[in-house]
Write a structure and sequence with these properties.
Elements: E1 8-12, H1 16-22, H2 27-47, E2 52-59, H3 67-90, E3 94-98, H4 106-119, E4 126-133, H5 135-151, H6 162-168, E5 182-185, E6 204-207, H7 217-229
Parallel strand pairs: 1-2, 1-5, 2-4, 3-4, 5-6
Helix pairs in contact: 1-2, 2-3, 3-4
Length: 239
């Protein structure tokens, strides 16, 4: 069914710390293994014909974690793109980073800008990292941008509709692909954690007890197959 084609998949990559704890290792080991799994799942999504993969990598609330852990997480994009950029280029993957990037450390900011620039002409899967991202902050920023245009007489209040708000979200440049068809959260937790609150209005959800570093291509394929059996009505009725 056309309404069950999976074009945009979003994943809350949860459970890195618990995975490390189960191994008797420090949390950063889990984050390292989680980073390596991003490549596996990205390539699996590409094989499945998914157009956009949005990964929740670092939230605006994650700054509250211990300083050493935050510093490690801020260095992960540097490691990731240094290691996997040749694979991303070979597979025609375009990198997008959405979030409040001006608040990142200089080295992290530079590497994510370079990754977007290096891949901007690629026409395959869009690998969209939500990094220093928070959905409520995103909605506030979109509202402020629209309010400013009203104040500057560029817009009328009556011009404000759902489409305008969607265009002003950080996913707005994805056009028709801005809203995920399916959200997966690993680790057994069943909450959204301030992720894509606007965009998930009619998204299907799937929760798995697998921790992110152990989430496999086979796990992904099974969830996608289950999704394709669902009947999405988007608030309407069956004909």
């Amino acid at each position: 069914m056309e309404n069950n084609s999976l074009k945009h998949l979003a994943i809350i990559m949860d459970g890195n710390g618990r995975y490390a704890k189960n191994m008797g290792k420090p949390r950063f080991v889990g984050h390292q293994l989680g980073m390596e799994n991003v490549e596996n799942i990205t390539l699996a999504c590409d094989e499945l014909g998914i157009k956009v993969l949005t990964l929740y990598a670092f939230s605006t609330e994650n700054w509250a974690r211990p300083k050493e852990e935050v510093a490690f997480l801020m260095n992960l994009p540097v490691k990731f793109f240094n290691k996997f950029m040749p694979t991303l280029m070979k597979n025609n993957v375009r990198v997008k980073i959405m979030g409040f990037l001006d608040q990142l450390p200089e080295k992290t900011y530079q590497v994510v800008q370079d990754a977007m620039e290096q891949t901007r002409n690629n026409t395959g899967l869009v690998l969209n990292f939500a990094f220093n991202y928070g959905s409520r902050k995103e909605i506030v920023a979109a509202t402020q941008a629209i309010a400013q245009k009203v104040a500057d007489h560029e817009l009328q209040v009556s011009d404000i509709d759902e489409e305008l708000l969607s265009r002003n979200m950080l996913t707005g440049d994805l056009g028709d692909l801005s809203d995920p068809d399916l959200l997966i959260r690993t680790s057994g937790e069943e909450r959204l954690s301030n992720f894509l609150l606007w965009q998930l209005a009619y998204t299907e959800f799937a929760f798995t007890d697998k921790l992110w570093p152990e989430f496999t291509k086979e796990d992904l394929t099974k969830i996608v197959q289950d999704f394709q059996k669902r009947h999405r009505r988007f608030g309407g009725l069956d004909k």
